[in-house]
């Protein structure tokens, strides 16, 4: 989705990452899975976190108060390396203000890989890469499906568009419907293009509980996208064959919750309705990025 501000984020400083986990996934560019021994306080420091310690958070917040370690079994790719799931939450305090520019229309908490800045030479957006992640709902911290939530996406380095977006909830400007309780993966919005839905599955309803696993391959040279998906511990299978996707602008990988307001507005970043007293969360796991230049995609 293209937002009407010059900049949504401040670039994360490029600093050394914490030691990577060992796994069976060959050609790994970055590993965001969480070792069992990790404490929440480690996310507050660039020297101990695999993610940026300051972004994207509400003013004055720290990751140690925004993140939680939920009591759920690890995802498909967590179990291979004895990693644990991670929950990202939003509250009334989740108002991002980059450079003092308060985004009062949003509620957002998004993790970003510590070494990913989307600029020239960034291995996250070079050649052919595959981002892996798993997500599940938390019934104790339910989302408000009358809102649109962008829960995983790659945002262009100049903040003007997104390369792909995984959403749930009601699309901004639309009415609540049965499609609101789905996960919807959509295409690039480069050059003002309208996002097209690539893949949809039920979410937040009976029968959709547990892990939803994704691997999304982007060919940054050929401008294509390929999508793999599974439930639970099942191996990933291809659900979207390689097709055109405008990957211009490279990008930064976001994992977390960006909640849009409801109501009509010319500037959703700063205007619109957000209810008070919220305590919402999503559980993530199995997050890593691999080099797929040789055609390899880890499926199990």
From TrEMBL:
Keywords: Signal
Top-rank taxon: Eukaryota
Signal peptide as annotated in the record: 1-17
Glycoside hydrolase 131 catalytic N-terminal domain boundaries: 29-295
InterPro entries: GH131_N
The name this protein goes by in its record: Glycoside hydrolase 131 catalytic N-terminal domain-containing protein
Species, as recorded: Ascobolus immersus RN42
